[in-house]
Amino acid sequence: MDAVPGPKRLKKNTTIPLCHSQRLWAYSTQHNGWVAQLANEYSGKFDVLNRGFAGFSIVLADFNHFTFKNPSESPLGKYVVSKNTQREASSCRLVVIFLGVNDAALPSPDSSHVPLPEFRRNLSQMISQISLLNNNSTSPPIRMLLITPPLVDEDQWLITLKSYNLDAVLDRNNQTTSVYASAIVDVGSQFNIPVVDLFSHLSNELKLVSQTSNKKHSKNPFLYDGLHLNSTGNDILSKLVIEAINSNFPEISSKSIPYNVPSPKKVAKLQKQIETSLHVPPLLSKL
To answer: Edge to edge, what strands does the sheet with 94-98 contain?
Structure first.
């Protein structure tokens, strides 16, 4: 995937930027990552951009941190990017917002915890800013899709934490994560934005696995360390995201979008027609 440093590199109507999240985004090309699978789905049609950063909460991922005119005024310093103009925004066709895992961490001095009211407010502000771009643009609308955080395998995650620090204590749990997942579903409903409820889906899948298996799973089969999706979990999320796009935004489903260039067979046919019209010997045309 080409590293695109800022929106000025983007071409009109050719991108599905995937914006804002946390570690699940940053690792989303590993373990058969769902973003890598989405990029494959749109290969040759749209560019899929991963804009997730490990450890970011909704506060750090706030759009306003990326839109200071003077980098010295932003906590991101030199990494700040210019404010999107109407023309630059026209290249964006879909924004996927995947937040909540770090925000739902239990409160502590070093925690990434964000209080629920602030989390809801910031998520609503993100959606409103994108909606404002839509209202001020004649380009195709920027579609939005929300994803809830997955469930946590508390036992496995504690083992992972203690592998780095023997004194570590559990810093998140399913009870709290479910509250943040519900908040995302609620905000999505308020703004009429579709939500991929990954938390509920994986919870139901885990129940089915437990009911149909004679063996008791020692750890969650969808997570590789108790928190981050493994290949199976990524396959599930990729399928859910693609299904959500197809059902809610059929105009940008991969089947509805033509390739950016003709097929190799058509290109070869066109080249032959050009060579014939110009009376260029095939050998010379390849020099």
So the answer is: 94-98, 143-147, 195-196
